[in-house]
User: Which sequence fits this backbone?
């Protein structure tokens, strides 16, 4: 919303606004006792504090809300946290997290995410590892803005911290079954209890199955199904009051046919597809149907083990968290999204091993200073293999496409004969590009945070983080697409064209023979050779270091009203382009050709994007009163060197897109209208802008609003609880999520792909004194339709596809709890 322009980059305006807000402290309502509220304990600042006390912009979703709202995984969380957006893209393993409109990290394993996900203190380096159906959730904290001085691992846009319930020394557990439309069936169970006076355990498991809601009209199969399960073991050892250890081992698997895409705009190639016998669903974003020749396989396995040890000494405490994790993901898709066999195989095989070690020491210097000193180390090894291969119909498609551009129908056959190649060499079935990439990533952070209690009510916080990140990558390609390797300039010379005309294309004003007619075929070189790296010119290494910091002043105006102002910075290291569109930088082309490493027609592109640097100015006010609480935040956040990753048709272009900034306001509140009726309201108002954004595939977007970032997002929830006869209780809940209209993505026109969200969810439940619970639930009850993302169609210039949201789902649940 443009009326927020006056706040942009103005610490003075933020501070003045903050001062004005603090004046409401004179209102006597804030001095009353909390009548209905239970304190929410969070660990956002790496120590236990109430939600009101912590001077950070954080949203907390507790276990009760998670159960009542039927939040099954992190994707569902966005329906109750307006500042968080989660989009599932072309496969189950490609999911993007954004906070305040900032975030990237999907589709390209060389990009580390801007939003860090931590589960029980363990960093999950890729989004697919955060999608599991997590058991025994205690709370989920969403921290907005850079958090490097508290979490060690630099997360330049924010953090999602998931906390599960530790094993209990009282025997207990639960079993739950959910059933819904589209054949949905969910089983969840857990058991906990003591093994001895000093050791407790918990075991849990889940199974989630659902038929697809997206039809494949070619063979009758269904896409966008659910088929996943997981198991988890948790051991808590507390031999005395000064030491505890928590060991967690988990495994989960996803094996799904996902993800369906619809035809947003049928460009000039659509008629050619139909001309060779293919079918597609034209210009219908919400047909929930497509034509593909084989199932889109997605197989993901996540596994890991972690150990957290907490030591308590007389004057300080030490925490150590050690974790080993593995993620393997294999997918294969028919990416032309037609019944014509154009793309025979679009295959990915990703394997990521991660070791992380965090050490934290906390202590107090008297009663006036708390101190945290930490070290975070991460070692990640990535192996990434892909293949994009032609199908049986691509040759016929290419020939008809050539005719449509004015070429002779025998162009390819004549060229094969002229070069002495066997007929059918060009675009042969099974030919294409196979890419093999690796990345070795080592990250070390040293961080510290001081809280100075200047008075009983006034606290100053200073934190800093030094991070060093070293990355080494390799990339090579096996390419047997003969046509894409042809040097048309050299061929023209070989056919007798003067060298000075070899690179002169023909046009209406420049007809033959004073030009090279073959140059018109360059657009058909869909898969040009990728130059291997490292080589004599490109080392394939990056070594980045940076110091980030936070300065914060917090003041308790009363016992129930707190305010703060802060200034912080964040950092994200160099990201490497490991896609098949990874190409040498323009300034390196000459040196590569001089060394004899690059063909004459080598196209320039991007190998990597330099580090991101985040700056945020923030002012916040938090209060609690007799029937509720609220939190208000005003911020100005920007990212210099924003790492933009845009799909180009066969791969991804990764560049530093200059600067992206957002000025905004966030407001969250909880109010008990009566003792039975709880109301939650949250709103986020943003004024996002590309301060500097230029990319060859989309042009100059400087001064425009970033696609995918709504200026207004809001959620409203109402929960009513009451008592029935014989000790039974019941609740009814409804929540609504709204996002204002916005262009979906940079390289798809807004008139083709825009999004406005209006989701309505509801649930109802009854609980008995004996531990039985019965529930009904529904999501997207009004069947709101919107696009999660969009992209240019593969090898079909002028056409666009998109990913629609899920339709209405509903079901019932039965749960039995036992024990204390």
Assistant:
């Amino acid at each position: 919303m443009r009326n927020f322009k006056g706040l942009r980059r103005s610490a003075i305006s933020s501070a003045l606004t903050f001062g004005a807000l603090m004046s409401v402290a004179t209102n006597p309502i804030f001095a009353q006792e909390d009548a209905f509220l239970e304190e929410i304990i969070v660990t956002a600042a790496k120590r236990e504090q109430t939600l009101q006390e912590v001077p950070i912009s954080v949203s907390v979703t507790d276990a009760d809300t998670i159960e009542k709202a039927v939040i099954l995984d992190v994707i569902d969380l966005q329906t109750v946290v307006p500042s968080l957006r989660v989009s599932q893209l072309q496969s189950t393993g490609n999911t993007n997290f954004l906070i305040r409109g900032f975030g990237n990290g999907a589709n390209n394993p060389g990009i580390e995410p801007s939003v860090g996900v931590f589960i029980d203190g363990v960093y999950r380096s890729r989004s697919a590892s955060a999608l599991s159906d997590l058991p025994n959730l205690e709370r989920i904290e969403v921290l907005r803005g850079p958090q490097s001085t508290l979490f060690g691992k630099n997360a330049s846009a924010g953090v999602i911290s998931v906390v599960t319930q530790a094993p209990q020394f009282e025997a207990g557990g639960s079993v739950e079954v959910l059933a819904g439309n589209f054949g949905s069936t969910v089983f969840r169970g857990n058991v906990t209890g003591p093994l001895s006076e000093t050791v407790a355990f918990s075991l849990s498991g889940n199974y989630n199955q659902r038929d697809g809601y997206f039809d494949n009209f070619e063979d009758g199969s269904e896409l966008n199904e659910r088929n996943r399960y997981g198991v988890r073991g948790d051991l808590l050892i507390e031999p005395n009051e000064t030491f505890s250890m928590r060991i967690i081992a988990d495994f989960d698997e996803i094996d799904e046919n996902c993800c369906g895409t619809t035809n947003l705009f049928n460009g000039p190639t659509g008629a050619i597809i139909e001309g060779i016998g293919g079918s597609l669903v034209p210009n219908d974003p919400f047909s929930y149907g497509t034509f593909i020749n084989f199932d889109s396989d997605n197989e993901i396995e996540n596994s890991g083990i972690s150990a957290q040890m907490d030591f308590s000494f007389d004057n300080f405490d030490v925490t150590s968290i050690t974790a080993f994790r593995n993620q393997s993901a294999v997918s294969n898709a028919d990416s032309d999204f037609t019944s014509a066999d154009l793309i025979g195989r679009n295959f990915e095989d990703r394997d990521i091993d991660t070791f992380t070690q965090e050490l934290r020491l906390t202590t107090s210097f008297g009663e006036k200073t708390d101190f945290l000193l930490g070290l975070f180390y991460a070692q990640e090894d990535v192996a990434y293999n892909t293949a994009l291969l032609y199908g049986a119909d691509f040759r016929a498609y290419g020939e008809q496409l050539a005719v449509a551009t004015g070429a002779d129908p025998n162009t390819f056959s004549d060229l094969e004969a002229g070069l002495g190649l066997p007929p059918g060499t060009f675009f042969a079935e099974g030919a294409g590009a196979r890419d093999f990439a690796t990345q070795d990533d080592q990250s070390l952070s040293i961080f510290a945070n001081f809280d100075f209690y200047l008075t009983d009510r006034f606290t100053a916080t200073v934190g800093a983080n030094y991070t060093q990140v070293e990355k080494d990558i390799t990339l090579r390609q096996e390419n047997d697409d003969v046509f894409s390797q042809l040097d048309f300039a050299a061929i023209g010379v070989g056919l007798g064209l003067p060298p000075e005309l070899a690179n002169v294309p023909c046009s209406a004003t420049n007809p033959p023979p004073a030009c090279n007619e073959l140059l018109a075929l360059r657009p058909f070189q869909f898969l040009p050779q990728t130059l291997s790296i490292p080589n004599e010119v490109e080392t394939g290494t990056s070594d980045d270091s940076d110091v980030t910091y936070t300065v914060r002043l917090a003041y308790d105006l009363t016992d129930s009203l707190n305010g703060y102002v802060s200034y912080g910075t964040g950092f994200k290291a160099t990201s490497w382009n490991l896609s098949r569109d990874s190409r040498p930088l323009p300034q390196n082309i000459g040196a590569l050709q001089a060394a004899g490493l690059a063909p004459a027609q080598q196209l320039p592109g991007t190998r990597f994007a330099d580090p991101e640097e985040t700056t945020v100015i923030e002012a916040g006010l938090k209060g609690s009163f007799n029937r509720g609480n609220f939190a208000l935040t005003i911020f100005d956040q920007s990212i210099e060197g924003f790492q933009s990753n845009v799909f180009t048709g066969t791969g991804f272009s990764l560049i530093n897109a200059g600067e992206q900034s957002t000025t905004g306001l966030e407001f969250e509140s909880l109010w008990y209208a009566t003792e039975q009726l709880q109301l939650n309201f949250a709103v986020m108002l943003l004024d996002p802008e590309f301060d500097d954004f230029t990319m060859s595939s989309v042009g100059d977007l400087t001064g425009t609003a970033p696609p995918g970032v709504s200026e207004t997002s809001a959620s409203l929830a109402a929960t009513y609880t009451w008592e029935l006869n014989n000790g039974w209780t019941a609740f009814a809940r409804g929540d609504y999520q709204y996002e204002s209209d916005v262009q979906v993505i940079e390289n798809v026109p807004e008139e083709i792909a825009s999004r406005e969200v209006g989701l309505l969810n509801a649930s109802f439940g009854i609980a008995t004194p004996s531990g039985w619970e019965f529930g009904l639930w529904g999501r997207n009850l009004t069947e709101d339709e919107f696009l999660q993302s969009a992209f240019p169609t593969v090898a079909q210039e002028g056409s666009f596809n998109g990913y629609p949201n899920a339709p209405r789902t509903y079901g019932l649940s039965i749960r039995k709890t036992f024990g204390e």
About this structure: Residues 1-35 have pLDDT under 50 and may be disordered. Residues 455 and 494 are 85 Å apart (CA to CA).
